[in-house]
Automatic annotation (TrEMBL):
<keyword id="KW-0406">Ion transport</keyword>
<comment type="function">
    <text>Produces ATP from ADP in the presence of a proton gradient across the membrane.</text>
</comment>
<dbReference type="InterPro" id="IPR001469">
    <property type="entry name" value="ATP_synth_F1_dsu/esu"/>
</dbReference>
<dbReference type="GO" id="GO:0012505">
    <property type="term" value="C:endomembrane system"/>
</dbReference>
<dbReference type="Pfam" id="PF02823">
    <property type="entry name" value="ATP-synt_DE_N"/>
</dbReference>
<protein>
    <submittedName>
        <fullName>ATP synthase F1 subunit epsilon</fullName>
    </submittedName>
</protein>
<dbReference type="InterPro" id="IPR020546">
    <property type="entry name" value="ATP_synth_F1_dsu/esu_N"/>
</dbReference>
<keyword id="KW-0066">ATP synthesis</keyword>
<keyword id="KW-0813">Transport</keyword>
<dbReference type="InterPro" id="IPR036771">
    <property type="entry name" value="ATPsynth_dsu/esu_N"/>
</dbReference>
<feature type="domain" description="ATP synthase F1 complex delta/epsilon subunit N-terminal">
    <location>
        <begin position="4"/>
        <end position="79"/>
    </location>
</feature>
<keyword id="KW-0472">Membrane</keyword>
<comment type="subunit">
    <text>F-type ATPases have 2 components, CF(1) - the catalytic core - and CF(0) - the membrane proton channel. CF(1) has five subunits: alpha(3), beta(3), gamma(1), delta(1), epsilon(1). CF(0) has three main subunits: a, b and c.</text>
</comment>
<keyword id="KW-0139">CF(1)</keyword>
<comment type="similarity">
    <text>Belongs to the ATPase epsilon chain family.</text>
</comment>
<dbReference type="GO" id="GO:0046933">
    <property type="term" value="F:proton-transporting ATP synthase activity, rotational mechanism"/>
</dbReference>
<dbReference type="GO" id="GO:0045259">
    <property type="term" value="C:proton-transporting ATP synthase complex"/>
</dbReference>
Amino acid sequence: MKKLQLTIVSPEKKLFQGEVNQVTLPGVMGSFTILPQHAPIVSSLTRGKILYVTADGTSQNLEVMGGFVEMNDNNVSVCIN
C-alpha cells in the first residue's frame, strides 16, 4: 500500500517528517482526511488537532492554532502557527 510523506513545520522547527498512512487536518470549512493518491490540494487550517497514523500504525496528534497544508504527489506539507 502506498504511503504519504508528511512534513509538519512551525516557524521554530520541524515537528515531524516521515511516512504516514493518513492525516486528518482541521480545515477552515471542517475537518478533512488525506489518504494516499489524494488529489492535489491547498487549504487553510484553523485551530484544532492534526491527527496522523504513522506507517507502523501508531496514531499521533498535534494541537495547532492555524496554518496551511499543501498536498501533491503523495507529499503533504503542513506549516502551522
